[in-house]
Design a protein that fits this description.
Shape: globular
Number of helices: 12
Strand order of the largest sheet: 2-1-3-4-5-6
Mean pLDDT: 97
Order of helices and strands: EHEEHEHEHEEHEHEHEHEHHEHEHEEEEE
Helix content: 25-40%
């Protein structure tokens, strides 16, 4: 039977889609297809971070089922895990799962075909859950491979449903990580991106921590780069930075979620740091990694956020000079503490997001211009008709304009110019 996957959300979701696909093709019953119209089974791996994201999941399910009414529709991921009632207005769904049951995908499908009727294979996360997963050996369609080493979150930020969708923080054992690295190295991946739901919390309640996991990749010859996914600032200590700086293959790019530059808003968000602590962290990282880039996420229009508090965030963003920032208007998620607070108008949230985007984009343009004249190592990911594109160690996008094929290669490139969101080199 042919299986089509569509994936929403973060790198962890993308990893779990790869994990499920490898489980399916390891049997003789299933093959993968890139054409939903040819599929016997359609699996939607969902995201619940924003209300808009869930709306797109619903829309996609209806569209895919309408285009291929005979296909078995499977919903899994964070939206179905946190909100299993989603099936009430989605009769298109034949099998309801959640991220806790992803690794049972073969068994669940086999059981369904024994007795084809709506199947509820959803299970709640338990406090006693150990790390769930079987691992991957490749990352289909990608030059870089994502490697999930942590799951869950204990933070319960006031705006976030993820702890309800992912359960408590738990870490993949080092021996499992090493086995996956061995397979990814064998398959020629030059860069590994370590990812997790709360990645910097890796190793909680164990004798090891994040640097221990990263250090495992140092010994593999084909793996030339190690990169970190999104990090939470309050877990990154000076001691951790000192250890990270000793890992030679670690790329000096750190995506550290800020959310707000106002201490009063951070407190209402139930974030576990102050703006001053965040600033000290960025200074420590830039001192330890001279070519470091600091990227971030910021929410605008959190419930009760005043104009004065928003302007504190604006000034803080100017002060830190993020090399890139993802700006999101606050999205109400039922079931969170923030949903019970007085809400700001949509227009206010969006206006603030627009202004902050303009400011952080200007900082990014300045950073890109400052790269002109430098010679950098670029791992090329895509070859297009007129140019090849890839990323430096600190995740600066670089394009080389000609028709040569470079995807999968790490090459020395001299930066000659900068556009709004990328550099140009030769």
């Amino acid at each position: 039977m042919k299986v089509f996957f569509t994936t929403f959300g973060c790198k962890v979701n993308q990893y779990e889609t790869q994990e499920m696909s490898e489980l399916l093709v390891s049997t003789s019953n299933y093959t993968l297809t890139n054409e939903p119209g040819d599929a016997d089974i359609i699996i939607v791996n969902s995201c619940t971070v924003t209300a808009e994201g869930v709306r797109k999941v619903r829309q996609t399910i209806r569209k895919l089922k309408k285009a291929n009414s005979k296909a078995i529709m499977v919903l899994t991921g964070c939206a179905s895990q946190a909100e299993p009632q989603i099936v009430k207005d989605l009769p298109e769904i034949d099998i309801l799962m959640g991220n806790r049951t992803n690794t049972n995908i073969v068994y669940i499908l086999d059981e369904y075909f024994k007795s084809p009727s709506f199947s509820n294979a959803h299970e709640k996360h338990l406090k006693s859950d150990s790390f769930l997963g079987t691992g991957i050996s490749k990352f289909e369609g990608h030059t870089r491979a994502f490697l999930k080493i942590q799951d869950g979150c204990d933070r319960y930020c006031a705006y976030c449903l993820i702890p309800y969708a992912r359960g408590f923080s738990r870490s993949k054992p080092l021996e499992m990580i090493d086995e996956e690295l061995k397979n990814l190295n064998k398959n020629g991946y030059k860069e590994i991106v370590f990812v997790g739901i709360n990645l910097s919390d890796y190793g909680k309640n164990t004798p090891y921590s994040l640097p221990d996991a990263l250090a495992l990749a140092e010994k593999y010859e084909n793996i030339e780069r190690i990169r970190l996914g999104s990090l939470e600032p309050d877990h990154i200590t000076k001691e951790m930075i000192e250890r990270l700086a000793k890992i030679k293959k670690l790329c000096p790019q750190f995506h550290i979620s800020l959310q707000s530059g106002s201490n009063s808003v951070l407190k209402k968000m139930n974030r576990h740091y102050k703006a001053e602590e965040y600033e000290a962290l960025t200074n420590n990282l830039r001192n330890a990694f001279p070519e470091a880039t600091i990227t971030t996420d910021i929410l605008t229009g959190f419930p009760t956020e005043t104009e004065e508090e928003f302007l504190e965030t604006v000034e803080f963003a100017k002060k830190i000079k993020f090399e890139k920032a993802h700006i999101f208007p606050y999205s109400l998620r039922e079931g969170t503490k923030a949903a019970t607070l007085p809400q700001l108008q949509k227009s206010v949230k969006e206006q603030r997001a627009k202004l902050l985007t303009q400011i952080t984009n200007a900082t990014r343009k300045e950073y890109l211009k400052n790269q002109i004249g430098k010679t950098v190592n670029v791992l090329f990911e895509t070859d297009k008709e007129e140019f090849s594109e890839g990323y430096t160690e600190n995740y600066t996008p670089v394009r080389v304009y000609d028709t040569k094929a470079r995807a999968g290669q790490i090459l020395k490139i001299k930066i000659t110019d900068a556009a709004d969101d990328y550099c140009i080199g030769e």
